[in-house]
Amino acid sequence: MKQDEFGYRIRQALNEGLERLDYRTSFRLQQARQAALARHSSAQPEVGWVPAAQTAGGPRASAGLGSWLGRLGLAAPVLALAIGFFGIYQYQESRRISELADMDFAVLLDEVPLSTYADKGFGAMLSQDASEF
Amino acid sequence: MATRDELSEFLASVERRAFKQAQFATRDVDAALDIVQDAMIKLSESYGDRPVAEFPLLFTRILQNVIHDHFRRQKVRSTWVTLFSALTPKDDDSADPLETLEALAGSDGAESAADKVERAQVIAIIEEEVARLPARQREAFLMRYWQEMDVAETAAAMGCSEGSVKTHCSRATATLAKALSARGIRL
Fold first, then answer.
1. Which of A85, B74, B142, B177 sits a CA distance of 20 to 30 A from A68?
2. What ipTM describes this predicted complex?
3. In this structure, is residue A100 part of a structural domain?
4. C-alpha of B146 from chain center
């Protein structure tokens, strides 16, 4: 009982001390609280999927010409991407064909260095070509 | 599940006391403020969606853990400082030990003691003596009598038995009463 009473009096004194905190400390505590609340799960913005047409086409999507332009705005990048891929494929193919043609010419004109015939990879390529024919 | 407002209300109700507890432990205002901020952020991030009724005990445990982490980091830092200071030549006389003593004398406790208001003096002395208590005794005493937690809650928060809590509280009360009496304060 005596211990409890002593504890109660100490508590009163400590509570009085809390009221005497200086402004700087109170302000820093308030800032700390705001920083903590900013990390609360309810403070996180809702993340949801929004169709691109709703943002690209936007409010004009319902109008006649606007709707067409909106769809074009969505289709144009896809089309550009497809054309780009096709162009890269064509370029790689033509490069490969010209490399093979150069090599064939070199073999036919007997301009291939002797060391090439000793190369296992070259032999494998020739046998592969022969099997294709 | 607690809302943001409920969490805000809870933090506002405990922030000052938490600061004082951290300050009693560290005797450093800035470190105490950092500790309180860390504890608040941890509560908000990890337990912000818990029921409000669980906040007091959770926050108490988090605060104690953050204070202990602070001392652990300080211990590691001081180990490295000791190591490097042993490697550096000791011809630098610029460090005056009296500066440290002056800085201690100019701490919050001393400033408050210099206050003219008698009550402020008494409160400052009480806070000073509470801060001087051994860490575990102070934790138990403050949880039991300041935060009004019961023995079981205090034991759970401190991670010890209820018997240990009673022993810590009893010793803290005896030490505090003796120290205050020696300084001429009668409660």
1. A85
2. 0.71
3. no
4. 12
